[in-house]
């Protein structure tokens, strides 16, 4: 981010403490950073910390009471390549969306010519509140980028969505933004999570997929301006965004039916779900009772959703598959790339410690349809999602 001029707006929420670290990351990446703080934010992080780390004076009020100097919001707005507001409270988001201008930070926002991006942080019920979702919609329409909050433990002690994105993640968003600050249009269909294939009302065949990879791709796509249809198997992941439609399914057959319903409206399909290849031939309506002997049951093959999408697409639609392998990784992935006639395949291996199922990290190798290879080392699933979406956004260029 050498030489990029980042104006950082800090509003009054407990997550403001993370901003010190964010400034350090941005400075390490050689960006120029100037900061505007709301008066409320000074209760959460000291302006001295912010000015020291950013190596620039911090402005809080319209004018400096000791020197009488006017802090010109228009100059700030002209200077900035991007205005990042982090953490963005419900109060500030509401005012931005509805044209209320009662502090320097807001006056600067309303004077901006270049992009503004908000990284919200608040408690989980506030983050789901219809009023906030309406305001997100308005901001989106005004061209503001939104870095979705993450899920986790909140300052209130509750657990859920509303945590400020981690500083590394915010920095990645900014990097992706500067790589291509044009916002993309189009719809991406994403499958995520496991499928559960029921044997009876209490037992199923499933796998360890948490849905994190698919949800991370969805987050990255939304932040780049795409609309997303996210079809997910059973998962604890949460994601709210005005341009997201989420469809919860259970079995492979349910997932296929949803894909069949939505596919012709999509420009791209990214199939990251871990779909069960087989299901029990019969599913009992009542609990199967234990008996003294062995129990055998037969399995039938599930439909291949990725192959269905690939075989039923127009020339414009692009299909991206995943390959989860335990051995002969590249050979197996390349065979899937060709057999399923894909535009790209994303290989991940259970041999790589800390990657694939469940965790926040992944390590992948991407092959395009000409077998060109890109390796992405172990990093957050969100970063992998951002890289994938960056590649996809060049498909039509
Ligand atoms: O959810 P996480 O915990 O974050 O874990 C992420 C992940 C490891 C599940 C993910 O990164 C991943 O690898 N997803 C694909 C898992 C998988 O089923 O791989 P596969 O090699 O068996 O399938 C190949 C491709 O065909 C995949 O795109 C899969 O979605 C698709 N498929 C497979 C079977 C089937 N019946 N229908 C399908 O569409």
Features of the shown structure:
single chain, 397 residues, alpha/beta, Rossmann fold, eight-stranded mixed sheet, six-stranded parallel sheet, 13 helices, 31% helix, elongated, binds ligand PMT
Describe the structure.
It is a single chain. The strands form five sheets. The chain has an eight-stranded mixed β-sheet with strand order 13-12-9-14-17-18-19-20, sandwiched between helices. Helix 1 packs across helix 8, helix 3 packs across helix 5 and helix 4 packs across helix 7. By secondary structure, the chain is an alpha/beta fold. The two termini are 23 Å apart. The protein contains 13 helices and 20 strands. The chain has two domains: 176 residues, 3-Layer(aba) Sandwich (Rossmann fold), CATH 3.40.50; 193 residues, CoaB-like (Rossmann fold, 3-Layer(aba) Sandwich), CATH 3.40.50.10300. Strand 17, helix 12 and strand 18 form a beta-alpha-beta unit. The radius of gyration is 23 Å and the shape is elongated.
Largest sheet: 8 strands, mixed
Question: C-alpha Rg, in Å?
Answer: 23 Å
Low-confidence stretches: none
The kinds of small molecule bound in this structure are: ligand PMT
Overall number of strands: 20
- Structural class assignment: alpha/beta
Shape: elongated
CATH superfamily of the largest domain: CoaB-like
CATH architecture classification of the largest domain: 3-Layer(aba) Sandwich
Number of domains: 2
Question: What is the overall pLDDT average?
Answer: 93
Number of helices: 13
Content of β-strand: 25-35%
Head-to-tail CA distance between termini: 23 Å
């Amino acid at each position: 981010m050498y030489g990029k001029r980042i104006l950082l707006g800090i509003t009054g929420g407990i997550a403001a403490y993370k901003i010190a670290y964010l400034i350090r990351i941005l400075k390490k990446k050689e960006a120029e950073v100037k900061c505007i703080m709301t008066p409320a934010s000074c209760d959460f992080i000291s302006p001295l910390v912010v000015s020291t780390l950013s190596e620039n004076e911090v402005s809080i009020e319209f004018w400096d009471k000791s020197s009488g100097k006017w802090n010109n919001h228009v100059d700030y707005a002209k200077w900035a390549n991007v205005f990042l507001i982090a953490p963005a409270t419900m109060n500030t988001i509401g005012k931005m969306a509805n044209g209320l201008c009662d502090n320097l930070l807001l006056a600067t926002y309303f004077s901006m010519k270049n992009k503004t991006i908000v990284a919200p942080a608040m408690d989980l019920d506030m983050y789901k509140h219809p009023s906030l979702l309406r305001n997100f919609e308005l901001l989106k329409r005004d061209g503001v980028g939104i870095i979705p909050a993450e899920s986790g433990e909140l300052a209130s002690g509750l657990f859920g969505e509303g945590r400020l994105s981690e500083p590394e993640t915010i920095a990645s968003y900014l990097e992706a933004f500067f790589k291509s600050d044009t916002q993309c249009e189009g719809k991406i269909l994403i499958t995520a999570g496991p499928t559960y294939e029921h044997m009876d009302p209490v037992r199923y065949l499933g796998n360890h997929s948490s849905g994190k990879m698919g949800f991370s791709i969805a987050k990255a796509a939304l932040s780049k301006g795409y609309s997303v249809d996210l079809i997910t198997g059973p998962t604890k992941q949460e994601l709210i965004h005005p341009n997201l439609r989420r469809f919860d399914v259970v079995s492979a057959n349910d997932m296929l039916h949803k894909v069949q319903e939505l596919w012709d409206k999509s420009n791209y399909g990214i199939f990251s779900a871990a779909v069960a290849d087989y299901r029990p031939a019969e599913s009992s309506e009542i609990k199967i009772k234990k008996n003294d002997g062995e129990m055998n049951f037969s399995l039938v093959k599930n439909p291949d959703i990725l192959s269905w999408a690939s075989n039923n697409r127009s020339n414009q639609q692009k299909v991206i598959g995943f390959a989860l392998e335990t051995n002969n990784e590249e050979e197996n992935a390349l065979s899937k790339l060709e057999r399923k006639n894909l535009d790209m395949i994303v290989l991940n291996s259970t041999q790589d410690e800390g990657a694939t199922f469940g965790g926040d990290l992944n390590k992948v190798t991407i092959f395009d349809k000409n077998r060109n290879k890109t390796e992405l080392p172990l990093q957050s699933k969100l970063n992998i999602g951002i890289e994938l979406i960056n590649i996809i956004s060049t498909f039509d260029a």
